[in-house]
């Protein structure tokens, strides 16, 4: 009776009645009859391609099968024991990979759920894979949503997988031989299959992008690094070379995406990508969208650049750091010449002047492939070693605020650099080189050349920095009134560019309309000498003298070598500190 009712309902839909079916199902039924000339009363068996045809289909889909395999395996593990079967079909609907429970092989075969079955709509009628190919959207075709009577026991949920150029490449289908009657019972299957399809697209994009930047995006900071929602692959000038399906939403509906500049839709350009790398806290990796809203970004640098300097926009990431200030131009000139070599660099300057940004730009202009960034305050020797253990080949080791390194970590670092010549250090410090309290040998290992970043109050490109920040973070329309601009140009900026950015962000949020006026500017925060005094003093390696002596079994010569001083200094310090060797 159910079969007769099904045929009768198809008839009513063809006559234009609404029967409560999803509209994509009704549309598919109409295509089956009117376009493919199918008869709902016939129970046609599944269409299986020949062995030779299957080999061809699998060969063409080889790259997708490889990209999808581990995703499918983990999805199958999640649904193990629940009678689901997973199919990966190519864009024509032919099943090229298959995961099912061996117990049901015969049942699955007779339902057409196995390798080589063709689920395109014109052969199989309304079905999950077929409807997904036509609509290019995830769908559930549940029981008598199917057109042919042969399939009305099945429930099929399918999601499309797109290649990085936006073309449909495959369909991932999760099917049940027997399912509960409500279609909503398949909501979980829908979530599983769409997430798995998204991950396959991500894996595919990553696999084809070792020489390009990839920007991963997520609306939730918690999932940014582990399971991002979308990703784009970018060339050296920030143009889109590839994308996952979910990244479409960033771009205007219907407009082409490939070749567009990422700065057209997000408030960043290619020079900002190093600031979005994983070593930065997630909450600092916020990207504003041109049409409002914000996303969290995770940029992955090319593993093997096409050529150390090739591919980046003319001038490269270093040139993007100056707006014509003569001191900055001189510094950038030095950095450009030093970047490709292996000389360890010590980058000094006040807080917020852009030392870290300069270090990242130097890394991007170097031959190094790996990039490790560590904050020295609180860094223990184990964490240092663990972070460096996985580095293979030429690697940049960025040590932020080297003046805060603990003595035992400084000792470990010296040993590490001895053993691992492929690590090139870039160290930053808020102190002048002469004020940095480090054992001499280590200091010289880190400071092959010292670069000094000028404070903002000395820079003559403040105007350029302000306009650039406003353009990227507040939108093209927002500008400064002449009096607000004059006030900002006259400030002393103890917090340097970081402070400037915060002042502009606050002003842009407070201003009414698109002009920032004097009253919109937050008052400058002056750091008083008392506050400065309260800041922790740089750590002193002599505080660790006893531990160092213990580690050297009280051998004065060894301890002297570790601390980079002579034996008599060690003896003098031992006396001064009243230390005694253990009994
Ligand atoms: N040349 C520049 N052009 C534009 N923005 C810059 C430039 N240099 C730094 N910035 C911005 O200024 C902020 C501070 O930069 P960064 O973290 O590199 O400073 P820093 O000197 O390393 O600070 P600290 O020593 O306090 O860690 C960041 O938001 C960075 O993007």
From TrEMBL:
**Pfam families per the UniProt record, alphabetical:** AAA_lid_14, GAF, HTH_8, Sigma54_activat
> Which superkingdom does the taxonomy of this entry point to?
Bacteria
Q: Which residues form the Sigma-54 factor interaction domain?
A: 321-509
Q: RNA-binding: present as a keyword of the record?
A: no
Alphabetized, the UniProt keywords read: ATP-binding, DNA-binding, Nucleotide-binding, Transcription, Transcription regulation, Two-component regulatory system
Q: Which CDD domains match?
A: AAA
What InterPro entries does this protein map onto? Answer: AAA_lid_NorR, GAF, GAF-like_dom_sf, Homeodomain-like_sf, HTH_Fis, P-loop_NTPase, Sigma_54_int, Sigma_54_int_dom_ATP-bd_1
Q: Does the keyword ATP-binding apply?
A: yes
Q: Hey, what's the signal peptide range on this chain?
A: none
Annotated PANTHER family: SIGMA FACTOR, TRANSCRIPTIONAL REGULATORY PROTEIN
Protein name (database record)? Sigma-54-dependent Fis family transcriptional regulator
């Amino acid at each position: 009776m159910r079969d007769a009712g099904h045929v009768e309902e198809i008839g009513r839909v063809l006559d234009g009645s609404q029967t409560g079916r999803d509209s994509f199902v009704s549309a598919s039924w109409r295509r089956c009859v009117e376009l493919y000339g199918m008869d709902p009363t016939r129970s046609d068996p599944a269409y299986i391609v020949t062995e030779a045809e299957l080999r061809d289909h699998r060969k063409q889909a080889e790259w997708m099968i490889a990209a999808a395999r581990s995703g499918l395996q983990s999805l199958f593990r999640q649904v193990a024991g629940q009678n689901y079967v997973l199919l990966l079909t190519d864009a024509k609907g032919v099943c090229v990979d298959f995961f099912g429970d061996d117990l049901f092989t015969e049942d699955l075969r007779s339902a057409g759920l196995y390798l080589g079955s063709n689920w395109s709509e014109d052969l199989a009628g309304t079905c999950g894979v077929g409807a997904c190919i036509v609509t290019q959207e995830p769908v559930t075709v549940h029981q008598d949503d199917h057109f042919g009577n042969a399939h009305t026991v099945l429930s099929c949920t399918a999601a499309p997988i797109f290649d990085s150029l936006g073309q449909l490449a495959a369909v991932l289908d999760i099917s049940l031989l027997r399912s509960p009657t409500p279609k909503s019972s398949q909501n979980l299957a829908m979530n599983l299959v769409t997430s798995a399809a998204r991950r396959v697209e991500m894996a595919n994009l990553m696999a084809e992008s070792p020489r390009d930047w990839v920007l991963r995006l997520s609306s939730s900071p918690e999932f940014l690094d582990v399971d991002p929602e979308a990703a784009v692959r970018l060339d050296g000038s920030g143009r889109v070379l590839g994308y996952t399906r979910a990244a479409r939403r960033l771009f205007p509906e219907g407009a082409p995406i490939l070749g567009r500049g990422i700065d057209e839709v997000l408030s960043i350009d290619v020079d900002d990508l190093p600031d979005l790398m994983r070593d930065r806290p997630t909450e600092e990796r916020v990207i504003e969208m041109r049409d409002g809203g914000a996303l969290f970004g995770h940029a992955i640098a090319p593993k093997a650049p096409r050529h150390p300097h090739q591919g980046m926009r003319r001038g490269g990431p270093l040139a993007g750091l100056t707006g014509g200030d003569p001191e900055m131009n001189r510094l950038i000139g030095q950095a450009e010449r030093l970047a490709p070599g292996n000389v360890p660099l010590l980058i000094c300057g006040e807080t917020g002047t852009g030392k870290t940004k300069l270090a990242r730009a130097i890394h991007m202009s170097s031959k190094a492939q790996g990039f490790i960034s560590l904050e020295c305050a609180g860094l223990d020797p184990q964490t240092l070693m663990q972070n460096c253990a996985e580095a293979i080949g030429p690697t940049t080791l960025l040590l932020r605020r080297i003046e805060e390194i603990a003595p035992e970590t400084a000792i470990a670092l010296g040993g590490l650099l001895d053993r691992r010549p492929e690590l090139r250090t870039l160290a930053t410090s808020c102190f002048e080189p002469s004020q940095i309290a480090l054992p001499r040998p280590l200091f010289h290992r880190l400071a092959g050349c010292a670069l000094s970043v000028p404070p903002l109050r000395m820079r003559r490109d403040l105007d350029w920095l302000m306009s650039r920040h406003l353009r990227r973070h507040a939108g093209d329309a927002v500008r400064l009134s002449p009096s607000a601009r004059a006030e900002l140009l006259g400030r002393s900026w103890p917090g340097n560019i970081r402070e400037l950015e915060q002042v502009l962000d606050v002003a842009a949020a407070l201003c009414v309309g698109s002009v920032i006026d004097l009253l919109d500017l937050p008052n400058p925060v002056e750091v008083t000498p008392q506050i400065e005094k309260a800041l922790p003093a740089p750590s002193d390696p002599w505080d660790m003298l006893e531990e160092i002596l213990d580690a050297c079994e009280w051998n004065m010569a060894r301890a002297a070598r570790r601390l980079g001083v002579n034996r008599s200094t060690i003896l003098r310090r031992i006396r001064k500190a009243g230390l005694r060797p253990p009994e």
